[in-house]
Amino acid sequence: MAGVPVVEGFFDPSVPALLGTRCTECATVFFPAERSWCRNPRCESTTFDEVELSREGTVWSFTDAQYQPPPPYVPADPYVPFAIVAVELAAEGIVVLGQAADGVTVADLAVGGRVKLITETLYSDDDGDKLVWRWRPIKEA
Ligand SMILES: [Zn+2]
Predict the structure, then answer these.
(1) pLDDT at 82 over 70
(2) Three-state secondary-structure class, residue 24
């Protein structure tokens, strides 16, 4: 896919997959990637492996974002409200926030529903498309 991530280092748009780190001692997974010291209070490790996180998960919580969220979100300009989803990743068990995919509203979301990671264009400028990760509900058969 053409384009580059709006924020460098959070995801690989060619997979697409979120990029995190895993502590080499206690195997705790961090997103955004932790590279200085392990945040597990019982672990003193300072070494991490770079890992691609699960591309699917289940909806843990969701809301209509009526305010501008903090980084790493880069808002569209002008800001438009969107559904924001907290997703528990299948393998890691950690919760990652993200916008819902284009056209997805809170009416399309349900706690416990399965979603997959996709990449969409947040905006385009002279340098090309700027990409963000988003969550799209998986249609159950
Ligand atoms: Zn650790």
Answers:
(1) yes
(2) coil
